[in-house]
Amino acid sequence: MFEPRPFIAEEIERLKAAIPGKAIIACSGGVDSTVAAVLTSRAIGERLLAVFIDTGYMRKGEPALVDGMLRRLGVQHRMVDASTEFSEGLRGVVDPEVKRKIIGERFIRVFEREARDFGATHLVQGTIAPDWIESGGGIRDTIKSHHNVGGLPAEMEVTLVEPLRDLYKDEVRKVARELGVEVADRQPFPGPGLAIRILGEATPEATAIVREACAIVEEELERAAAAGTMPLPWQYFATLLPVRSVGVQGDIRAYGYTVAVRAVESVDGMTANYAKIPHDVLERISSRITNTLKAKVNRVVYDVTDKPPGTIEWE
Amino acid sequence: MRILVVDNGGQWTHREWRVLRDLGVETAIIPNTTPLAEIQADGLVLSGGAPRVGLSGEKMGRIGEYLDQATIPILGICAGHQFMAVHLGGAAGPSAIPEFGKTIIHIDDRNELFREVPDSIQAWESHNDEVTRVPPGFRALAHSENCRVQAMASDAKPLLGLQFHPEVEHTECGETIFENFVRLCERHGSH
Fold this sequence. Notes:
The complex is a heterodimer. By secondary structure, chain A is an alpha/beta fold. Chain A has helices spanning about 5-20, 30-45, 60-75, 85-90, 95-120, 130-135, 170-180, 205-225, 280-295, and strands spanning about 25, 50-55, 75-80, 120-125, 160, 235-250, 250-265, 270-275, 295-300. Chain A folds into two domains: about 5-180, 3-Layer(aba) Sandwich (Rossmann fold); about 200-300, GMP Synthetase, Chain A, domain 3. Chain A has nine helices and nine strands. Chain A starts with a helix and ends in a 13-residue tail after the last strand. In chain A, about 45% of the residues are buried. Chain B has a single domain (about 5-190), classed as Class I glutamine amidotransferase (GATase) domain (Rossmann fold, 3-Layer(aba) Sandwich). Chain B is globular, with a radius of gyration of 15 Å. Chain B is built from four helices and nine strands. In chain B, strands 2-1-3-4-9-8-7-5-6 form a nine-stranded mixed β-sheet, sandwiched between helices. Chain B is about 20% helix and about 30% strand. The chains are: A alpha/beta, B alpha/beta.
């Protein structure tokens, strides 16, 4: 059985040995990268700089939240606004694999710059087992290229260190709780962020729409779970579909876009089943989304697909 | 007790490793190109994989060699199970109705692999092909609504196959099935 304490002790020793100089760590504020940051910080202290990159595809209020958390955890960090760089990179990009590869490549370029500024020779990432498994390679099919695996360019100026490679999310959470990391139980959020919650081009306008829709889904499900109406799902969000349909809003014809609500139950993210959300909760989510987004979104659907055959995210 | 997981490129190969590890068994993932002479184990698990075994037998490395020459118990899962069937004289082909996600498995034959497993369990699947005819000397042990051979075992040798995935969280009694396989390997080793 996986035991967090021996794992933590061994990993800290391994990190000390692997990083003789300075390192930077890619930290999104999610549980994986935050755990990796705390482990590395315990191993090499001030020789570590955590870098948070605002890609422009983060959730509502996320950068400020992460800044505060890293301060409280005492991890030396820097907040970088790279939103222009990322949105330019994704201009006109529609294919999900191409999106992921471009995002992975942009991340690395930003980290290379930061590593050079800090004098770091190593880049630490919170990559976990599902990331490299689903990214494929060799005889393993590529299900999707995770931003921290499939998108890495052939020549890299820094050495990569991934302390959590063999772990699944449930195991990372055990480590997080042991380390006192406050996002231990926060739902997973993909590295490419909202860019892959928009089917088709991830324009600034589409990003604003899906950011709002995600915030509504999160608020409503968290409120219903806190009230004991339903268990909190493992992962829950909204996806903006490029499908338009006819509606009627305020006695005039509407021809807006569609949001798919997604909520799943899982343990390790490798298999999942769709969450059986009570209808009155779905109803609140639906009407809040269409009321808030007005003519932009006039239809909401609920994704009733397990993994397999779907994956949790749509891209 | 050392049971190795032979990687056929499956999504859940690492899960198979994890379940064995959690059962306290010494385990590792090895490429399916590993020569049999280099394998020191008390049992093997042939993982699932992407290859359409029902269509061609390529990309399955040396597992034919393991099936022909190894004397230890071998459990084939999904593509591993299909390859076992084809290689030993049975047949596999594209499923008329493939299964992804939840399926109910009905156990028809009480093999030791199913010790303490109820007659019907919810299992998770992900297959485009299936075994259409078990090899000579094998019997089918379980079925689902859409798939006739969900499990098989040889009468004479310790060779077993499962179409569904006992290694994922969503399959009921998956860990029990693995425990039974470990027990089978222990019994076999002590002879």
